[in-house]
DNA sequence: TAAGATGGCTACTCCCGAGTATGGTGGATG
DNA sequence: CATCCACCATACTCGGGAGTAGCCATCTTA
């Protein structure tokens, strides 16, 4: 409460010429920074306590301000959730754009997207992206969100189809496979907490490996052997004789 | 509102001797039936509108009664959620018990559990089981739920470990693999709606096939060929030359 | 230094929904 | 027939949280 806005004056000192427009432009920018801080604080709170268990007073308190201040930057609670959602989804859309121009097999491009996807879900906005319920939003925003989600879903299906066609992905039903992959990754948001042993990227990586291999044993590959516990290669399709455990 | 309790009198007529205890015992049973109806109605409502967007008045209205009636069978809203959760989780625990005595490979036992798991998630109580947030419950019940969830998680990991040891499952990290599998299945609750083309069992089946095969191509198997679109077998590891789409 | 803009706070309103006090009805029991 | 109990409705209380009205401080710009 005491040291609010300590840096801005310092920053102003370091800008030499100071055109007449400078100040106002800096203010707009400052406002944008604050607005984003509100969004981030909301995401953090939603993350920890859930949307409905988070009051705007909570969010305000986390920023050392009061509720009307929050409303100064945001029209209502619903919009706050919406913004968090969009922030999360944008990371994934970026992943698609990035991968689009690469000349790789479908599976490799898919893996690239999935990795970013996993990272995004494990990020601060992951919760909002994943657990935001359409019922909590007005029809307009709910429609917006559904469209974005669908776009991502279709993108994954397309990559799967392409991978199947170019032979880099085992033949499968693209729709169901997309559901399975996205579900596994989305679920990260339910159990992942910061300060855990693994980062989001590492988890995404582990998942991609699992998806690639599948459960049924394969002839040992380099990547599979690297991950396996050091045990002599077992012949697949041999039923259990050793007791479990 | 008019035809409430139409059947009980009819049922009583069909019981010939009618011992003196009969009536009271029937009433206890009737009470239990009604209580379960309340739980089911709650699950249904939570399913459609979410926990926080469902008032007890809503649930009561769905049963053509009023709120105090609901409270007559249930102590509070939280307990309602809890009961729904337990009902869902019990289906999965049953799957574990059922599979425990079968003499099968780890992978086959795992598949059996996953199939029941998928069915449970797609059931009426799936939403509650999956999306019930611990923050909405008192510490006591939250702890209870966490324990049940953990039990299931550990059960899946154990099956994976056993499968890896008996050679029926490709070597992998049991913890991460369990997260991936459970996540994919849990996510069904987010998109599945009754009256869809596929039943819960069919979805679970499709997922199990996907998990088994993995994304990287394999030598064609009978089951894989059955699912693939009728296209000539492509040689894996050949990069795409055809343009996408 | 005056006037306006900008950003923030105090102190409300207002509604919704969880939970309850209390009373009525109908069937079982003596 | 009198009574009791199980069951359910009417009609409340009450708290919490979303959103607002209106005032104050500070900074900008003329």
Description of the molecule:
- 2 copies of one chain form a homodimer.
- With 245 residues, chain A is mostly helical.
- Helices cover 65% and strands 0% of the residues of chain A.
- Chain A starts with 6 loop residues before the first helix and ends in an 18-residue tail after the last helix.
- Residues 1-17 and 222-245 of chain A have low confidence and may be disordered.
- At the A-B interface, α6, α8, α9, α10 and α11 of A face α6, α8, α9, α10 and α11 of B.
- The structure holds a DNA duplex (30 and 30 nucleotides).
SSE inventory with pairings:
Two copies of one chain form a homodimer.
Chain A: H1 7-13, H2 22-49, H3 56-62, H4 67-73, H5 77-100, H6 106-122, H7 126-131, H8 139-165, H9 174-186, H10 188-191, H11 200-213, H12 222-227
The first copy, chain A, binds a DNA duplex (30 and 30 nucleotides) through residues 20, 23-24, 27, 31, 34, 55-57, 65-69, 71-72, 76-77.
Beta strand count of chain A: 0
Question: Quick one: biggest sheet of chain A?
Answer: none
Helix amount of chain A? 55-70%
Taken from the alpha-carbon principal axes, the silhouette of chain A is elongated
Mean pLDDT of chain A: 84
Oligomer: homodimer
Termini of chain A, distance in Å?
A: 57 Å
**Class by alpha and beta content of chain A:** mainly alpha
Beta-strand content bin of chain A: under 5%
- Spans where pLDDT lies below 50 across 5 or more residues of chain A: 1-17, 222-245
